[in-house]
Structures are given as C-alpha cells and as structure tokens.
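Entry for magnesium ion complex. Fields follow.
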Amino acid sequence: MKILCIGRNYADHISELNNERPSEPVIFLKPDTAILKDNEPFYHPDFSNDIHHEVEIVLKINKVGKNIDAKFAHKYYDEIGIGIDFTARDLQSKLKEKGLPWEKAKAFNDSAPISGFVSKLQFDDLQHLNFHLQVNENIVQKGNTEMMLWNFDEIIAEISKYFTLKTGDLIFTGTPAGVGKVMIGDRLTAFIEGKEMMSFEVK
Ligand code: MG
C-alpha cells in the first residue's frame, strides 16, 4: 500500500507558512514504513529539532482505480479516519530553499500516525466535517472540511490521474492552521466531530 498526501489544501494553513496558494493540489507520498497505529508512541527522531504536527482527515481507498472522475470518486472510499502528517519543518525549509524533494522531512519512519477507520456513513455531511487536535490539554488545530480548497472527490480525481489507487491506500487530505512543534512528553489526541479517534505520546 501507499500513502498519498495533499499539501496546502487549507487557506489558513497556507498563509501561516507564507506559502503560495497552489493552482492545483500539491501531492506527495509517504512509504508504508511511515505508518504508526494502535496509539503506539512516536519516538522523536534526532535529525530534527522542529517536528510539527499536522492533523488531517484520512481516506481509505476500497478498490482499484485510475483516472477517476470526481463524480464517481465517492465510490472509491467508504471509511475515513484521522492522522498526523508529521513534518520535520527545519529540514523541509532547507530542502524547499534548494528546490530538493521533501521526503526526508515528510516520509521518515512513523511520520504518519493513523487512527482506526470508521464508516463514512456515520457522518451527515463529509463536506462539513469538524475535526481537531489537542496537545496535552490544549486544542491546537481545528478544521472543517468546508475550508478545503479541493474536496475529497476532487482530490481522488487529481491523484488518480498520476497514481493508480489500490485497495488499502490512504490519502491524507491536508491540514488546517495551527501546526506547531511537538516536544518529548507531549500527548496528541485527535477527534472527528468531537469523538476521540486516536491518542498517543511523543517519547
Ligand atoms: Mg500535511
């Protein structure tokens, strides 16, 4: 399986990093070794002093498809979850400056903690889905999918032009504002519509 991620999909996050608003979705990948699940702790790597949390809604692909029309994209996922797109912001800034690929900053081991997945039918409206991230006792990121530049179906259409989607692939759909550094000892807890989905410690 593979993990596809969308960057710069929430306007408020684009402005907090002073990034340019993209004219098409920014797409990058993480390998399966990035997955961290079952609330296992995240061990802070030594190569970065600025690992940021980015909380994101994650789609789980349920069948093979390519060149999927946005109209039919909803048929390609029936479960959603929540995840963290951990980003070594210090490394990423250096790589971006030099025009180099982001993998070391985005795709390292355990850089994609994920919750369990639940049926999308549990939610009334995927276009207005609330989610948030708490670090220790503080809510640090709050998003609603209505703030996305590209919605789930448009994301699937765009990704599948370039990458054949297969059963079990995951799509990280972008982060809202409020990204920030994690510290050893922090506990990260992520919620969809107020329901706790995942909670793990940084060690
Ligand atoms: Mg992200």
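NOTE: The helical segments are 11-16, 89-97, 103-106, 152-162.
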